[in-house]
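User: Predict the full complex structure for these chains.
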Amino acid sequence: MAQARWHMLTIIGADRPGIVAAVTQALFEGGCNLGETSMIRLGGNFTIMMMVAHAGDASALAALAGPSAERLGLHLHVVPIEGQLHAALEPDVRVTVFGADRPGIVAQVTSALAAAGLNIVNLESHVGGSPEQPIYIMQLEGRAGEGGLEPLERALAEIKARGGVDVRLASIDALYG
Amino acid sequence: MLEILRYPDPRLKEISEPALRFDDELRAFAAALEEARRAGPATVGIAAPQVGRLIRVAIVDVSGRKPGKPSGKPETCHGRMVLVNPEIVEWDGLAIGREGCLSVPDFTGNVIRAEQIVLEARDEHGASSRRELSGFEARAVQHEVDHLDGILFLDRLVSRRADLFQRKTYQGAAK
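Assistant: Here is the predicted structure of the two-chain assembly.
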């Protein structure tokens, strides 16, 4: 049997109960092994990304997962990747941003944070409020650059001073015991 | 050097027995346990079951910690504490925090812990103490006492995706 190789399998489409079960069962029966995965609903859509180890190439994996995804009306995408496990990048800072929804919040905040040395480890954002008065809420975790948290705090203070969004930075002081 | 057990070693899920004799053997074990703690990267605590001894002994020392940003809340630091037969007798407040473990490499997760505790324990000479602990130190003690009861931080994981348990929000909501 050929050596299993890592692929990133992405599936999106209208959400309904049972998608994860149907797709992962098909993968299991096809001899795959899952690595790290992330599933979230975005605007009512089902989205998932899964590291999948499979002996075949990307098209063989797509053929394996395809029927179960198609039955559920989902789009599927597979690319070969370098799978790096057991080398987690632990975030040391959490940033929360929220304000009245408008275009450009994510670009403005993440550009300033990137310039201040932040490497984003995970990010998600939501549109809440009412249809008439939508609010945008973004939470991210990242790893500060060599300058530490101070440059990030300065960058966020500047953004806050310009108005329109509230920002909060908290350090993630992980405890190892 | 004592070997650190890693999950899923079943000994990590056992309930440890109280230490009965405060003798040289116990003191030698506490010293060896401290040596094992210091070998870990930025490890603020260690408990006997993590090295395969199912007795109620743990060490906590948060004095070497470098916080990224002051929390603005009370943070005690009692230095190195050898805790024999520790008992948490009071709890107050709840806070979410990120934890990892020598026995669970390459993963950290969010756990809810009491912000303040009152801890009764003996030391390796048998002397009893009662301490009030706050913040990171209180969290570390809860993590280690859990080990003595066969509980890992994995047993207490909450969502990593959102800081749902901001103390500030809670106080606001209570008004």
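The CA atoms of residues 32 and 81 of chain A lie 15 Å apart.
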